[in-house]
Amino acid sequence: MSGTKEITILDIVNKYQGKKGALIPILQDVQKTYGYISNASIEEIAKHTEYAESDIFGVTTFYAQFKDEKPGKHNIKMCQGTACHVIGADNILNVIFEELNMKDYGNTPDGKFTIEEVACLGCCSLAPVVMIDGEVFGKLTPDKIRKILKAY
Question: How far apart are alpha carbons 149 and 152 in whole angstroms?
Fold first, then answer.
């Protein structure tokens, strides 16, 4: 046995015990620990705090930082900043959707990829740009993104 204890929702809630305005930090820690905020997590948070499930759900759906689905194995962030948009981000996005057999942002059916839109990745000189698992790929063309996706 390794001796490490899995962090529970109760552990996270207890970390913020007695602190005002703790809901967002609690949700951030839950997402950092589990990768997303499940309905079961919301129920558990409500059980151990003064927040109603409906209030917690309201916060998780209002802020784009919170995910309600388990993320895919690989995370693709598609830049939609001005430079990327002008230079062809939509064409690259269409190729990604085509290659992964998707119609919109979210998870692939096999759970291998999560595709999300971001306002800007800060790599405007490399437009159009995607980030996959933290690695930036720039000056993309349809052929280049196909080759990158095949590598995953």
Answer: 5
The encoded tokens of residue 100 equal: 């992964």
Q: In the structure encoding, which two tokens stand for residue 31, read together?
A: 């997402």
Domain carrying residue 130: 74-151
Q: Is 86 exposed, middle or buried, given 0-12, 13-18 or 19+ CB atoms closer than 10 A?
A: exposed
49/30 Cα distance (integer angstroms): 14
Q: How many residues does the chain have?
A: 152
Give the other-Cβ count within 10 Å of 108's Cβ: 16
Q: Are 75 and 125 in contact (CB under 8 A)?
A: no
Q: What is the pTM of this model?
A: 0.73
Within this chain, do residues 53 and 85 fall inside the same structural domain, yes or no?
no
- pLDDT over 90 for what percent of the chain? 86
The domain that holds 132 is classified in CATH as 3.40.30.10
Overall number of domains in the chain: 2
pLDDT tens digits, 21-52: 899 999 999 999 999 999 999 999 999 999 99
